[in-house]
Amino acid sequence: MYPLIIPASCEVGIPQMRKLKLRESERFAQDHTTSEYKHHGSALPPSATRPGFNCSFFLFVVGELLLLSSMIFLLPVVCGCPGRCRCHSPSNFVDCSRQGLAEVPSDLPPQTLTLHLQDNQIRQLPASAFKSVPQLTTLNLYNNSLSNLTSGVFRGLQHLRVLNLTQNSLHSLESRLFHSLPQLRELDLSSNNISHLPTSLGEPWENLTVFAIQQNQLQQLDRALLESMPRVRHLFLKDNLWKCNCHLLSLKLWLETFIYKGGITDSIICASPDTWKGKDLLKIPHELYQPCPFPSPDLESSQVQQLGAAHQAVPRPPENHSSGERDHWECEIKPKPRPANLRHAVATIIITGVVCGIVCLMMLAAAIYGCTYAAITAQYHAGRLAQINEPAKTEGKELFDSSMA
Fold this sequence. Notes:
This protein is of the alpha/beta class.
């Protein structure tokens, strides 16, 4: 609950109103009492003149109470605050949330900067809904029943920076719907039923930094729309029905560049086809997009180098196929019998085997060399030992023969 603060424009006339009311009450009490007793030809009663009782003071208190109650009921009307809203004058904040409103109040204060209309039952916004609040910077329409936004509904809101349209019933958005919002910085379209977004929602948003479109029914997103947001830094796309076919390849390339430049985004989980269901779009290898046509002639050089041979000339489907079959052939990602990553794995295994074989041969050669060297060394030492022992045997034999003789 926000305190009811009387704007300065309304406070100016309150002292004058009190003085006027006091004079009228005193004059009324004096005239009424004097005329009544003069009519009956009697003097004023003692009770009317003794210090304990004052008719003027009594009437003054009653008048003040009436004046205060009137101000409480009439202040919203006099000062421009809608009857079912709460206005905070110092910050120019108007809170009309949770009031069961079916439309935007028409008597909003023109100096309003922040307007909260969340948790109501607003179904439609006319073209002049916010004409009376040209200085508006924040507009919150969270949790209403909006199903369509007509072109020009935000016209005149040149200073709007934050627009929250979360949790409504929007199905689609018109092209250039937000073209009159050059200062927009945050746009939240989450938790709707949006199944398609146009290639442009307005002029290039030089100031937009946050764009949220999660929890909708999107199957694809045009890259041109994202390129119209050169300063976007937070992009929320999860919980949609993303169809990870060739149409989503350009989005994948754009997101990789976006993340490389420091952007923040969430995961894009594929909902179809079954081959990629539950997979993160950004983690699908580029080689698996080889059957897809080249996304765009103006791809950045880094992206082209990254794709390499995966995005060269694409073979055409047979001429005897129907147009529907041709479109299906061009759009769906065809998982190859032996994808590139498997070929790379086989090549790695072969190279590893060759290296291991060479190492084994080298170890075998070293073992043979060691054994041969050991045998030669042993034979050499045996010959040397035989040569040393031969004179000793001859001398011993001569001594034996001489002793026998």
